[in-house]
Write a structure and sequence with these properties.
The protein is an alpha/beta fold. The protein has helices at 7-19, 54-67, 89-97, 115-126, 131-145, 149-156, 160-168, 174-181, 187-193, 198-211, 215-240, 250-258, 277-290, and strands at 33-37, 41-42, 73-77, 83-87, 102-107, 262-266, 269-273. It has a five-stranded mixed beta sheet with strand order 1-5-3-4-2, with helices on both faces. It has a two-stranded antiparallel sheet with strand order 6-7. It comes from Arcobacter arenosus.
């Protein structure tokens, strides 16, 4: 699927809108800064960001109260009434926290189905998402627009390696992902746990928090766990193979060999090699006469 009027062009629209931020007036012309009633602005239903730092939000609110809003939010007109937020949810929340009635905004005219990608791009570029939200944002953009990690890196100005490593964190268990989202453990810790089963991940994650393990110490712990699991698997494999006593079959083996059949009996199997239909008849005759 080609990007067409996708990420690149939409990013261009937002950039143009921000570059026109000095063209302030009180009308609703596109790409002009306007004052909007906060109650007329609806949140973006596709906003990927779910967690907001209340302390930082209060700091932003105090700053806006003292110095005003330096960067307007971005909205589009709703089909029914009011506006839908495209970018700037923290700024909007900070205004509400400061009990302000209006907010500076830029109105852009784009299709409503583009809301998701604009919200994702805006948050990714501003580093507002926690590491797991960021990973899901990358995954959404890649899946919905059929782009490669390399193409995405050029759109969001992140290295391809960084994007790939972040996406790999989605392979971790939900338990570990929640700890990552809450900054209880680092992405470096999470990366070390890739390849472990869910129970092992829980053990390692709890050890990291309880013992305040560094990434290097976590690597050592993971190696021990993997080594212990490999040893256990080897022991299980060895216990499955038993050496049986084939003495009761010695007579049968000798008689089969006399019929020019190749017979092999060792450990836990008894094998008669068949090379022709005649061999099958020899075996049938032997066991038929025997039983």
């Amino acid at each position: 699927m080609a990007l067409g009027r996708g990420l690149g062009e939409l990013l261009g629209e937002v950039e143009t809108a921000y570059n026109n931020s000095n063209n302030y007036d009180k009308t609703n012309n596109n790409n002009k800064i306007v004052e909007l009633d906060i109650n007329e602005i609806k949140p973006n239903p596709n906003q990927p960001r779910k967690i907001f730092d209340e302390e930082k939000l209060k700091e932003l609110s105090d700053s806006i109260s003292s110095h005003g809003l330096l960067q307007p939010i971005t909205v589009i007109k709703d089909k029914i009434d009011g506006y839908i937020l495209i970018a700037g949810e923290r700024r909007l929340k900070a205004h509400k926290l400061a009990n302000l009635d209006t907010i500076k905004a830029i109105i852009i005219d784009i299709e409503e189905f583009k809301l998701r990608e604009l919200a994702l791009i805006e948050n990714i570029q501003r580093d507002d998402l926690n590491i797991i939200e960021l990973a899901y944002s990358y995954a959404q953009l890649i899946n919905e627009h059929s782009i490669t990690h390399e193409e995405l890196s050029k759109k969001v100005f992140k290295s391809r390696t960084s994007i790939t490593n972040t996406l790999r964190l989605l392979q971790l268990s939900s338990y570990v992902q929640q700890l990552l989202a809450n900054n209880k453990i680092s992405a470096g810790h999470g990366k070390v746990m890739l390849g472990l089963d869910d129970e092992q991940q829980r053990i390692v994650a709890d050890s990291i928090i309880g013992q305040k393990l560094s990434v290097r110490e976590t690597e050592t712990l993971v190696k021990k766990l993997k080594s212990s699991k490999d040893d256990s698997s080897d022991k299980k494999a060895k216990t499955k193979i038993k050496n049986f006593d084939f003495k009761p079959l010695e007579s049968a083996i000798e008689n089969l060999k006399k019929s020019n059949l190749k017979v092999k009996a060792e450990k836990n199997y008894f094998k008669i090699e068949i090379k022709s239909q005649e061999d099958i008849e020899k075996i049938s005759n032997y066991f038929g006469n025997t039983f």
